[in-house]
Specification:
With 395 residues, the chain is of the alpha/beta class. Helices cover 36% and strands 18% of the residues. The strands form 3 sheets. Strands 1, 2, 3, 4, 5, 6 and 7 form a 7-stranded mixed beta sheet that branches. The structure holds zinc ion.
Length: 395
């Protein structure tokens, strides 16, 4: 019997990618031919990323895009209609003129609006209108149009379509990210092979410097292993591309982590920057990947100053016990302290802030651009080397 944490909802993993076994490809290409004859509903990049999460089983136990009751419940109570914990609505919207032509019970094809590729088919069981402002107030705690998550929700089509999906392709991801693109079934089997049962996930959309290394090692001290899990979906301007980031992380792991304590993987989500609510979603799907802990640092999944630095810690205390089987590892901001002569947090270092090494992302880019030396107390030389090559190539 598996020692791994059960998937969210307590049942089996439910990947929505059509087909399994040797005939899967054939099954998908047959379905694709049929889908090409059906009415097409465009997917925004956020919707495509959610579809890919459904495809791999990361959003278990969702069957597809949410109906009105589930939308409402997840906004207001962080619960689906059947009581399952779910902190952020997963919905699909379209314009009125498209919705008008679709009848309930009809199967439609879902098309990535950026590539024109048919990604999935959906049996439309419900069409409904949402209060987008309500969603923003509940999920993002703001309706400020400058918040990137709010911008996207407010730009959605007027009608939401709901229904179960069957995904026909995972698009560019398995090809572009090969060994990084691990599905929950893959990470679970890697954990089982290593006989891990307590596994921490470390979320990142940046290369890992020494402060991140410290966070990761705290997790390894108390768990069997660590999943370094990077965001492969759309990034913000100025973010390091995924392949460079993966190489930088590889360089760190190879040189500074004990062997067989770390697995690196990526997943296709597009960040919503919903801060505390998103931290809960991040925990939920990490449970599906087989993790028992999620490292939640300062301002997890936040943007600007919309959220208090520890809001993403506190929200875990406010949910009903039993909502999730995964637990947060709440750790305050980490830094290198000159007097401690090592990495620390504000819980462990008593020294003045001026002794703490802090280099912002912007400042770091500037340092690379000006060919300034990067202190090895900030980042490991092997990591700096990978990043410097990237900046030299792109500048
Ligand atoms: Zn100190």
């Amino acid at each position: 019997m598996s020692k791994l944490v059960p998937p969210h909802g307590g049942g089996e993993l439910e990947p929505k990618l059509l087909g399994s076994g040797p005939n899967a490809e054939e099954e998908r290409s047959e379905a694709l031919k049929r889908a090409a004859e059906q009415k097409a509903v465009p997917l925004s990049s956020r919707e495509t990323s959610d579809l890919l999460m459904l495809a791999m089983g990361a959003y278990t136990p969702l069957e597809g895009f949410m109906g009105q009751d589930d939308w409402h419940g997840s906004c207001l109570e962080m619960k689906l209609n059947d009581g399952t914990f779910w902190p952020i609505p997963i919905t699909l919207s379209c314009d009125e003129d498209i919705a008008k032509g679709i009848s309930s019970g009809e199967e439609v094809s879902l098309v990535d609006e950026e590539t024109g590729q048919i990604m999935a088919v959906m049996n439309v069981v419900e069409k409904y209108i949402i209060d987008r402002k309500l969603e923003c107030t509940e999920v993002f705690q703001t309706t400020d149009p400058a918040h990137p998550g709010v911008t996207k929700v407010m730009a959605q089509g007027k009608i939401n379509l709901a229904g179960p999906v069957r995904v026909l392709t995972e698009g560019r991801f398995p090809r572009d990210f090969k060994s990084l693109y691990l599905r929950p079934i893959d990470t679970r089997s890697l954990f089982a092979e290593r006989n891990w049962s307590r596994v921490a996930a470390f979320q990142t959309r940046n290369p890992m410097h020494r402060s991140h290394e410290y966070l990761a090692k705290i997790a390894i001290e108390i768990c069997d292993g660590l999943l370094i899990h990077q965001v492969l979906g759309k990034l913000k301007k100025g973010d390091i591309p995924a392949d460079v980031r993966a190489n930088a992380i590889d360089a760190l792991v190879k040189n500074y982590f004990a062997s067989d304590t770390v697995i690196q993987a990526g997943y296709p989500i597009e960040m919503r920057y919903a801060g505390p609510r998103e931290a809960l979603l991040h925990a939920l799907f990490r449970q599906n990947f087989g993790c028992t802990h999620l490292v939640v640092g300062r301002d997890h999944a936040g943007v600007g100053d919309y959220y208090g630095p520890l809001d993403a810690h506190h929200i875990f205390d406010s949910i009903d016990s039993g909502s999730l089987k995964i637990e947060p590892l709440k750790i305050d901001i980490t830094f290198y302290c000159n007097i401690c002569q090592g990495a620390a947090t504000s819980r462990t270092c008593p020294h003045d802030e001026t002794e703490r090494l802090a280099i912002s992302g912007t400042r770091l880019r500037e340092m690379f651009a000006n060919k300034e030396p990067i202190p090895t107390t900030f980042s490991r030389p092997e990591v700096i080397e990978v990043l410097r090559a990237h900046y030299e190539y792109t500048s």
